[in-house]
Structures are given as C-alpha cells and as structure tokens.
Design brief:
Helix content: under 10%
Number of strands: 11
Number of domains: 2
Strand content: over 45%
Largest sheet: 4 strands, antiparallel
Radius of gyration: 15 Å
Structural class: mainly beta
C-alpha cells in the first residue's frame, strides 16, 4: 500500500515502465517499484496521455486574466512537469478540452467543446 505524504484526492492511475503514476487534483505521484516516489505539481488537467515516463500531453482549461469564459488548454512537458508548455484555444467563447487518447503510434486525438459545438483535434508527435 502507498500512503501519500500530502493530502490529495486521486482521479486517475497510469502504469508505465513498471512505475505507477497517480494523478490527484493538485499533484502527480510517480512511484517506483521499490516505493520511492517523485511528486510533481502540474497545471489543472482533465486527462493526460503519457508518450513515455517523462513526456506527457494533458488537456484542460485556462482562464485569461479576469475573463469569465474558459479557453481550452493543451499542456505538454518533456520532464515530468518540471517545465510546462501551454497552447490555448477559444478566447471569445467558452471552450474546454475534455478528453484525449492515442490514435496511433505518432498521433493523439482530442475533443474540445464550446457553447455551440465540439471540435476534434489531431496532434502528431
């Protein structure tokens, strides 16, 4: 059993290279087989896809300044959330990315929803 050193509510679990990754509301735990672990503080995301143990693509929302409407956000990292890149979509209407999944070995498909319609994005890597 793994007991976290911080209080968090877990929302997703991933397995990769004999490591367990727990996604919480505020933190991500990367747990080694021997029980050692790393803690990362990523941006707020709904879903993540691991390309490998360090490279991750995540989707969620972003708010610009004091704006009321959210923009859809795609977050990427190459170092387990030590550094993050963000690309936003939307702006004049509320928009958010809700899910993503692997389409093939070099492509991910994402779904974003707005007030009037949904959009599908293909990201190649």
């Amino acid at each position: 059993m793994f007991q976290t050193p911080v209080s968090d509510t877990f929302t997703n679990i991933f397995f990769f290279d004999e490591k367990t990754i727990l996604q919480g509301q505020n933190k991500i735990f990367r747990i080694e087989k021997n029980g050692k672990f790393d803690i990362a503080t990523p941006p707020s995301m709904f879903k993540m896809y691991f390309i490998n143990i360090n490279q991750v693509i995540g989707v969620g929302q972003s708010y610009s300044g004091q704006g009321f409407f959210s923009m859809g956000a795609i977050y990427t990292t190459n170092d387990f959330w030590n550094t993050t890149q963000k690309k936003t979509f939307g702006g004049t209407v509320a928009f958010t990315f809700t899910t993503l999944d692997k389409k093939n070995d070099h492509e991910i498909m994402m779904i974003g929803t707005g007030i009037k319609r949904s959009a599908v994005f293909n990201i190649k890597f």
